[in-house]
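Before relying on records like the one below, remember that each one covers exactly one chain. Contacts with other chains, cofactors or solvent are not represented anywhere in the record.
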Amino acid sequence: MKTIRTLLLTSFAVTLGAAAANAASADISGTWKLAIGANTVCTLMLSTDGTATYTAVCTAGDRVARYNAAANRIELRTASGETVGILYANGDTYAGKRFSDGRTLILSR
């Protein structure tokens, strides 16, 4: 009985890990709109290599240079690796707060 329980728990863990890896590997590259606070919207290009670049000048969001996508979130980072904010999936968008000043960040297509 103990062997069956161990086998079931191991199978569950492997299945859960595979599902998380599959969700994390979702391709989110492409052009996004990054809303910063209530008034600023910048166009942000997310590349498959983890870099983030603006298609025009965006002084309100100029620190975002990299991103890391995980199961249901996107972490925006500076070029030096400092976390700018963590955005959580909400339907087709990602929303969160910028750590430096608490401004709302919304990433949408």
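The radius of gyration is 17 Å.
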